[in-house]
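Worked Example 4.2. Consider the chain below.
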Amino acid sequence: MEKAIFLDRDGVINENKEGYVRSVKEFVFLPNTIQALKLLSTLGYKLIVITNQGGIGRGLYTEKDLQSVNKKMINDLEKNDVKLDKIYYCPHSPEENCDCRKPNQLLFKKANKDFCIDVKKSFMIGDKTADIEWGRRCGCKTILVKTGRGGADKKFEVTPDFIVEDLFEAANLIKANTCELP
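Applying the procedure from the previous section yields the following structure tokens:
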């Protein structure tokens, strides 16, 4: 079984501009993100992005636009010796009530099928309460970062296992506690 770091994208890995990152020009890594992902990859975790992209369902950008943004992110990370193992996304608007939108579990089921995840050794890192609820439903440890929304959306009444400033602090927390986390 594989241990994984599940990561929300916007607000965790990159700046969340006006709610949506619609183009390559709008994609900007948050400070220390590349170093954080590099650290996590050296700890033997699969790096898996799980992201809601409701702007597609709302007609604000296309799946092709999303693929271009993801390709830029992947290429920039690879230039820094960081490999994302997979990106899963929900293209639906919240109003569509689909099974793939976080906190629903369809994307976790796909990731688990692809990687055979050991949830007790895995983490969800996100900036919204839906991310934390998703991780809780999966059985992962959860880390809320204060970047992006920092949990201010309050859509779900959840308490993360940890609250940190950013992805770099989350990576260092995981590194310091790789054996015994609650």
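The radius of gyration is 15 Å. DSSP finds six helices and six strands in the chain. Compare this with Example 4.1 before moving on.
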